[in-house]
């Protein structure tokens, strides 16, 4: 099953941010890059610097506004021609990874940006969706992206 559009990491800028700032975890078939969600509490912008006028109901500039909901977790899959020269093989591996991530998404805390980098060893296997699922689950646990670990 494919990932929903809201859960796909698409832009080059997002991929670069994950590679530049994210943490890295390795396994036999994959490298996981994970960028922690941004803090959801921001200073209030509707505050006025009027002090000492006794106005009630206004926030001070340093009062945090209510937390904003985190965006959904986004996943990108990076697979180069080093894995396989054949696009059919690369696309099959991408579909298997997307299916595995689709199963794992409900367990992942919201707001994470993840990139799964596929290693050439992944092309040596045949029909290993279950193995990919277990390996990805292990990587996500190591990166502490599951609910309750963030």
TrEMBL record:
GO biological process, one term: tRNA 5'-leader removal
Residue ranges, compositional bias (Pro residues): 63-72
Alphabetical list of Gene3D superfamilies matching this protein: 3.30.230.10
Residues covered by region (Disordered): 40-76
Domain of life: Bacteria
Root EC class: hydrolase
Cited SUPFAM superfamilies: Ribosomal protein S5 domain 2-like
UniProt EC number: 3.1.26.5
GO molecular function: 3'-tRNA processing endoribonuclease activity; ribonuclease P activity; tRNA binding
Reaction(s) catalysed by this chain's protein: Endonucleolytic cleavage of RNA, removing 5'-extranucleotides from tRNA precursor
InterPro entries the UniProt entry points to: Ribosomal_Su5_D2-typ_SF, Ribsml_uS5_D2-typ_fold_subgr, RNase_P
One Pfam family recorded for the sequence: Ribonuclease_P
Self-association and partners: Consists of a catalytic RNA component (M1 or rnpB) and a protein subunit.
Protein name as it appears in the record: Ribonuclease P protein component
Organism: Scytonema hofmannii PCC 7110
Taxonomic classification: Bacteria, Bacillati, Cyanobacteriota, Cyanophyceae, Nostocales
